[in-house]
């Protein structure tokens, strides 16, 4: 049973995270207070949502580096709508529509026209950032209505309601990908695009919807950002695209496509946020954050690689042993 679990990178990362929390808790007991751990979960919601969307694109063998800009664009759409006196539900819908539209643009370019994903999303990243500046005049959006900011303060069993919603979205995404034929298309496309085509799978549609989901989840992240922060700077979402990719890789999503799932993206996003919080509690200078997070990412991937190689060798040895046993039985029967 343990060998099955350890082969899943998401479990390995989760295990490392628990160990780190315990160690830091021994050094600084304040770290393992319920309020601190709840704060880490709340802080992880934005990156987790972006990573969940990025996961769909990575599963198809692509990459979307515009998701951070989409998060910012969605946040701007929500903020401007709220400040214009539009109701909260309608403002949220407009924010999601901004994410959907941005994802659809990427999906059309990559999936239907055939533009390489890195080139397409690099281009649209600039377009979406530019659109933010045009809509806001380059100024921050301040004084978001208090009633919207209260959403982030709603708790359920000591954990924010937003966190429960994000967890539910992760579970639903996992069920769709693992239990439905439509969901498994993302794996098929990433694993063997030509094979998927000859199986009758609409490869272009799969790539299109992967980018749409990435846009929608990034849009959701924008909604959460506005509720948690209460204002929208022009840098909103900047740099989150690479953190989202790192979170997915930590959780076992392959950059080559076809391998991984939502729970891996969720665990990876939570892990990166935990590292940030640990560095704050240990009073490590902020400029070390990226270097340390990168070193941990590399270490986890290398450790996971060694584990996988060891299990593959063990599996081959077992298969060879079974072949020898079958041969011995056949000779005995003769």
A few lines on this structure:
With 334 residues, this protein is an all-alpha fold.
Task: Record keyword descriptors for this entry.
334 residues; mainly alpha; ABC transporter involved in vitamin B12 uptake, BtuC; 14 helices; transmembrane transporter activity; membrane; cell inner membrane
Describe the structure.
The chain is mainly alpha-helical and 334 residues long. The protein has 2 domains: 1-283, ABC transporter involved in vitamin B12 uptake, BtuC, CATH 1.10.3470; 288-333. It has 14 helices and 2 strands. The chain has helices at residues 2-6, 9-27, 34-59, 67-83, 88-113, 117-136, 146-149, 161-179, 181-191, 193-198, 203-229, 240-250, 262-281, 289-333; strands at 155-156, 159-160. A two-stranded antiparallel sheet has the order 1-2. Strand 1 and strand 2 form a beta hairpin. Helix 4 packs antiparallel against helix 5 (88-113) and helix 5 (88-113) runs antiparallel to helix 11 (203-229). The protein is globular, with a radius of gyration of 22 Å. The two termini are 38 Å apart. This is Autoinducer 2 import system permease protein LsrC. GO terms for molecular function: transmembrane transporter activity. It is a multi-pass membrane protein. InterPro entries: ABC_transp_permease. Part of the ABC transporter complex LsrABCD involved in autoinducer 2 (AI-2) import. Probably responsible for the translocation of the substrate across the membrane.
Helix content: over 70%
Q: Which stretches are poorly predicted, pLDDT < 50 over at least 5 residues?
A: 1-6
Q: Report strand order across the widest sheet.
A: 1-2
Class of secondary structure makeup: mainly alpha
User: Could you say which overall geometry the principal axes of the C-alpha atoms support?
Assistant: globular
Write the CATH fold name of the largest domain: ABC transporter involved in vitamin B12 uptake, BtuC
Number of strands: 2
Q: Any idea how many domains?
A: 2
Strand content: under 5%
Task: Supply the CATH class of the largest domain.
Answer: Mainly Alpha
Rg (C-alpha, Å) = 22 Å
Mean pLDDT: 85
Helix-strand topology string: HHHHHHHEEHHHHHHH
CATH architecture of the largest domain: Orthogonal Bundle
Given the structure, what is the number of helices?
14
Main beta sheet: strand number and arrangement? 2 strands, antiparallel
Q: Give the N-terminus to C-terminus distance in angstroms.
A: 38 Å
């Amino acid at each position: 049973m343990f060998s099955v679990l350890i082969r899943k990178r998401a479990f390995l990362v989760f295990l490392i995270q628990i160990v780190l929390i315990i160690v830091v808790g021994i050094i600084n007991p304040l770290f393992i207070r319920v309020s601190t751990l709840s704060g880490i979960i709340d802080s992880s919601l934005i990156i987790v949502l972006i990573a969940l969307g990025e996961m769909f694109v990575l599963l198809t063998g692509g990459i979307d580096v515009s998701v951070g800009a989409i998060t910012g664009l969605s946040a701007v759409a929500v903020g401007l709508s709220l400040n214009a006196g539009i109701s909260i539900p309608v403002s949220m819908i407009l924010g999601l529509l901004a994410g959907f539209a941005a994802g659809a643009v990427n999906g059309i370019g990559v999936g239907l026209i055939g533009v390489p994903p890195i080139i397409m999303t690099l281009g649209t990243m600039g377009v979406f950032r530019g659109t933010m500046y045009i809509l806001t005049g380059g100024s921050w959006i301040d004084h978001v209505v208090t009633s919207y900011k209260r959403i982030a303060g709603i708790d359920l069993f000591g954990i924010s309601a937003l966190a429960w919603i994000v967890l539910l979205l992760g579970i639903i995404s996992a069920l769709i990908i693992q239990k439905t034929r439509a969901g498994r298309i993302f794996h098929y496309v990433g694993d063997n695009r030509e094979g998927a085509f000859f199986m009758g799978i609409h490869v272009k549609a799969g790539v299109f919807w992967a980018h749409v989901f990435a846009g929608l989840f990034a849009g959701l992240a924008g909604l959460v950002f506005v509720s948690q922060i209460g204002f929208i700077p022009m840098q909103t979402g900047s740099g989150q695209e690479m953190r989202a990719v790192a979170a997915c890789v930590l959780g076992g999503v392959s950059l080559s496509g076809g391998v991984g799932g939502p729970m891996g993206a969720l665990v990876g996003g939570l892990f990166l946020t935990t590292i940030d919080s640990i560095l704050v509690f240990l009073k490590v200078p902020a400029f070390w954050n990226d270097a340390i997070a990168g070193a941990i990412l590399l270490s986890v991937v290398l450790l996971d690689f060694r584990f996988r190689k060891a299990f593959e060798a063990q599996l081959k040895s077992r298969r060879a042993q079974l072949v020898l046993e079958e041969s011995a039985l056949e000779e005995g029967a003769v």
